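Holo prediction — NAP.
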Amino acid sequence: MVDPKSVPRYTLNNGKTVPVVGLGTWQSAPDGSVYRAVRAALEAGYRHLDCAFIYQNEEEIGNAIADSIKEGVLKREDLFVTSKIWLTYYRKDRVPLCAKKILSALKLEYADLLLLHWPFAFQQQDENLFPTGADGKIVGDDVDYLEAYKALEDLVDAGLVRSIGVSNFNVEQLKRLLAVARIKPVTNQVELHPYLVQAELKKYCNDNGIVLTAYSPLGNPGSAVNSASDKDKLLKDPVVGKLATKYGKNAGQILIKYQVASGNLVIPKSVTKERIASNIQIFDFELTKEEVAELAALDRNYRSCGFEMTSHLKNYPFA
Ligand SMILES: NC(=O)c1ccc[n+]([C@@H]2O[C@H](COP(=O)([O-])OP(=O)(O)OC[C@H]3O[C@@H](n4cnc5c(N)ncnc54)[C@H](OP(=O)(O)O)[C@@H]3O)[C@@H](O)[C@H]2O)c1
């Protein structure tokens, strides 16, 4: 384990701080796995959790948080919890509904960070989180992400969330948002790893005080929605392997350290106790500037999480 106090914290544009490494929870099953993963993470020194309404596992995450607090492992204020508003809840009267469902499942009075999960909306309804039409295609809704963001700002005023941000926004969408935002987004959470460096987005966010949060930092090797035939190619990349040997670390640790060394927050997912522990043991070595550049030079615009089933929707960000 690492001492949670030894994990560096990043200061967001509103002065709040967040541990640079968090635990991802997408595809962490609510069959006891995600409960055990969160417990293992909190024992291993994590104090930052990345959740989302759509992951449909927040009830178990909430149980793990509550039990850890009850047992004195940590206090609520030691923890930074992120969640994300789902696309069927983007109308201004529905954003608070989703936020309240999230807080109720997580058993928290406030979230540290709430994000808009994607820059487009689905049909606004409760029955189906992926509403599809007769043609089998996802049914979109023309509610603007600006309306949803305004509702997030109101949730800050209401004390239900401390910081707000976005996810999967491109530069044009961020520009449009920053032109009207009353409360600046603290982060844009996007896919980032050496095969998808997103230099232009990174520069825009840097210039505007928005930190990038790197999702799928390992290239999302275990996912059923990752259609690549060689899902673990990034973990097996020779440059990553060379650095792992040099520093006596594993490939995952090199890829996670790469994000921290690049100034990004990073949220690797695992439900495996040993991996959860090793993924945060990255603060006893430093990559050189040249090594960070060598990793970034592997860029090949490889996207594991393209969410292609939504590519017909207005504001699909990767067109
Ligand atoms: N905002 C968004 O739209 C969005 C999209 C995607 C992801 N995310 C967030 O980002 C988090 C991380 O991304 P991700 O889950 O897509 O992918 P990831 O963290 O790149 O990869 C997770 C996969 O890698 C395996 N793994 C974990 N540590 C490993 C290690 N040290 N060596 C080898 N394999 C390892 C995990 O297996 P085991 O679990 O079996 O150990 C799991 O299959 C998500 O969980 C979610 O919280 C957000």
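READOUT: Residues 18-307 form a domain with the TIM Barrel fold (CATH 3.20.20.100).
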